[in-house]
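Lecture notes, structural biology module. Today: joint structure prediction for complexes of three components.
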Amino acid sequence: MTWLPVHPVRATARAVAVAGCVALVAVLGACSGSKTPAVPYVAPQGVSEKEIVFGTHQPLTGPAAAGYSKIAAATKAYFDYVNAKGGVHGRKIIYRIEDDGYNPANTQTVVRKLVEQDKVFAILNGLGTPTHSAVLSYLKDAEIPDLFVSSGSPAWNQPGKYPGTFAFQPDYTTEAKVVGHYLKTASAFAGQKICSFAQDDDYGASYLTGLETGLGTPVTARATYVTSNPNVAPQVDKLRDAGCDVVVLATIPSFTARFISTAAKLGWRPQYVAAYPAGEYGTVAATLGDEKDLLEGMVGAGFLPAVANVSDPWIKLFTRINQDFNGGVAFDGHVLYGMAVGYLVVQVLQKAGREITVDKLIATLEKGGFRGPGLVPFSYSATSHAGYAGVRLSKVTGGVQDYFGPAYVTDAGSAPVTEYTEATATPPDSGIPSA
Amino acid sequence: MNRILAGTPTIVRRAGWAAVLVLAGVATTFVLPAGRIFPFSQFVVYLGAAAGLTVLMGLSGQLSLGHAAFMAVGGYTMAFTQNALYERGFTVAPPAGGSGRFASAAPPVAALWTLPVSLLAGVVAAVLAGALVGLAAARLRGPYLAGVTLTIGIAVPSVTATFAVLGGEQGFAVQVPRRPSWLAADIATEAQWRAWLALVATAIMLAVLANLSRGPLGRDLRAVRDDEVAAALAGIPVARTRVLAFVVSAASAGLAGGLYVYLTGTVLPGYFSFTTSLFLLLAAVLGGLGSLAGAAWGALFVVAVPIATAELVGALHAGPALAQRLAGNLPLALLGLALIVVTLTARRRPRSPGWRAVRSLGRRGQDGRTPSGSLHPSAEDDRKVGAAP
Amino acid sequence: MQRFGYLTVDGLASGAVYATFALSLVLIWRAGRIVNFAQGAIAVASAYLAWSVTAHTHSYWLGFVAALAGGALLGVVVERGVMRFVPADRPMDAVIVAVGVMLVVQGVLGMLYGADHRPVPAPLPTGVWRVGGVATVSPYQLFVVGAVAVLVAALALLFTRTRLGLRLRAAAFAPEVARLLGVRVARMTTVAWALASAAGALAAMLVLPSGLGLTPTAMDGVFITAFTAAVIGGLDSAVGAVVGGLAVGVVVNYVTGYAGNPNLANLAVLALLVIVLLVRPGGLFSGVAVRRA
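The predicted structure, tokenised, for the full assembly:
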């Protein structure tokens, strides 16, 4: 703008007027308080005045449905309980559950539907390593939070590559390190031959890696299976031939049952050690039917209170919610898992506040400090999106699966296995975490 | 209009139709809601594979119950090629985007030209596989051909799930190119862009198929299908023609496989399972064997019915236990019912050569006919002949 | 060597199941030139029926009989109710309709019973007898082989020694002539379906105790392997079906056992199929000369 030549007096007056205006505005601005003009809150996709929507993909049908199909219903039951008491920050939690039949090709479709059509705020507790791996980069591109993946693959802990993805349960390597450490140090297993029977994918492979790290030596013999072929007799035969004393099972429940049952038919009964996804007592016993006594003495791993421990306050709380909001289905480890996930979600939502955004959600999670039913702490931080940091070991005695010894924590890397002795938190009276 | 069309050479006319179809498809992606674009792209991909299959089964009369195996060959080859090109450094900066926490994770993406290269590699591999299978199948007829193709359809996904180098059951991620930076985010989404590329590639393949089936090769195929001896006497190389049919249909399946990998950015054995083969078979047959346009209807049906039935289930508002039971199973049952009803009530098409060829599956007795004119024994026939009640 | 012996015996036992199922496919093929893709679903529905009957009556054998009877009945229903309406000059339609039936049956079973794998008890001990420390065979495996042998013998007797069998064969081989001679061809087709479905139900009852448990898709793998076995043996040949089934069972077991990788089983079946068909394009026992290119 070119200044037109003006009369000097009028120019001076104008300058004074302008300076006065500027001063006035500055004073007014200062007087309006220390707040800068607030950025209006823009609710992200899936968040509205009254609702916040989550979505999940689960194997409701297919070979992995046994047991796992109960998890999402349990989470939804917990959300229904919270909604009945007013929801979180005035919003009801909606949970859309889609079936992918444990087939990654279907996961592609249903997750896209959840994100693009149902417009969820976040994907929660997607189940399965092969299934969820297929949608990792899609969710990152779509900038949709990917919370508490229901699998122990270490792939969910890559904050640099997938900033919105968070694990929940202890990853297979972490858990297996604890198991390996136990087998190495427990006197009962000194000098015995440790072998593995694992699913032929990342689950089995990463479990074996952790196991051998914890043991300090490779296993004596290993066998694998695929879910499409139920005949495991050749593998059982191979391990028995190798003289295995202990068989570590990195399997899904139906194949845990398969192996144990087939071995018994061949007149062989080694010591069984089952990974967390493999050894949920209720599910495996139901599959074995009359043969469930074969599970006697099986060692397992877990990170939530024992289902059998009916006096535990968390079990009491969740059993009650299960009765009232989940149709009273049989309360087992999967129902407990589902509710623990729901509890953590509500904790995070409470802490993140009413004006929640994707970034705020991630930042809240990375601050960590969430205490709930877990026997070990979470590992969430700016540099780690790993979930529970360890496990406690259990044993089946008289048809009851209960813990023994202390809990242990470690990581998927080179950290040592150490005992964790802090007491578990107690649930709030209302059963709903506060902000 | 007809006079105008009659004057133009066939190849130009075909190219024109292909262009029209692509434009219609692009327009459709703007009309559809966001959640339907991926299923639309799936439909386009299935259409390409089903078109090849309908040529194989309708024109050359050869069965292929495991056609998804060729999609697997094409898809995996495309995936390896794409990743190899990415590793070699043929990349560009990623499109601008990523807000807040997600902005930090933006590595370079593959250059756009790597896509046609990898798709072509997939087609070439599928062509080789098609030649191999065609050669093995040359001596087989009817149910024996069915058995071999069925077993191939099951074995190939098994192979991909077995060997760790192929990624095992969970496959691996593929570094596919993204939407180019000149295509602003508010004009078109990534999903739309991918749908467009799939449309273009499929349209080209369909034009090639149309050309082949109406040209000398198509004539040879029909001749061999209808009467091998006569065709041989007329100088047509029977075995080579039959193998070529497999090659052509494998090429289109291989392209479809590569496109599916592009659409999802991953490759998995589960994409090319026996169920996929079954769906391709259904799409090809429902549209009418030998008909390229029919393949479109069949593919649409196969993609739309599961979605529609799933939404029907959602609208029923059942309790948790019942909903779980209905969830995967009701769509299954309804799809099966739809198949039965559609097949049984399909208008009887005039006795086209295509059907006669497929009938070779079922030579009956001596002349194969019953008094009522059909080949199926019925009580009516028994009464007509005066059999004892 | 002990491993070889065990794998052979185990393979023969599972092969016997494939043989039974392959026989049921051959029966329907001979009767109507249809490959019955719904056979696995019919078989598993029979097994579910047995499960329900056993759950109510606490008797395995009552359930077993119910399975055979129910299977036969279901086969008749499918044939009379659905397959009959497929025009015979469109065998492709028969394949699709059969697939549709399979999906409907599996879907309905899933809705009625849910997706949980139900354990199926075996009627006899499945522990393997050991002779001098060497694993030989289990009572259950003997039962399986015995049951199949009885079935094969019964069918052979039926077809070669009885009037019904004669009528069945006539209806399948030369329907025109048979009709002129007073054979009700349509009814014979239905009988063939009933027999075949009962055989399929038997196969399901025999194989399920050793599998993952009862689910709507439990027989899919058996169908595919048995179909391959039937094709290897030649679809027109009942003897071929039995030999094919046993061979496939044994070969698959060797491959899985020695290679240690269960996925290779499918590849082995494919290889076997291709080799046999390259040498004899009509299957091992095909009587009719098959046209060569």
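Point to remember: Residues 123 and 255 of chain B are 5 Å apart (CA to CA).
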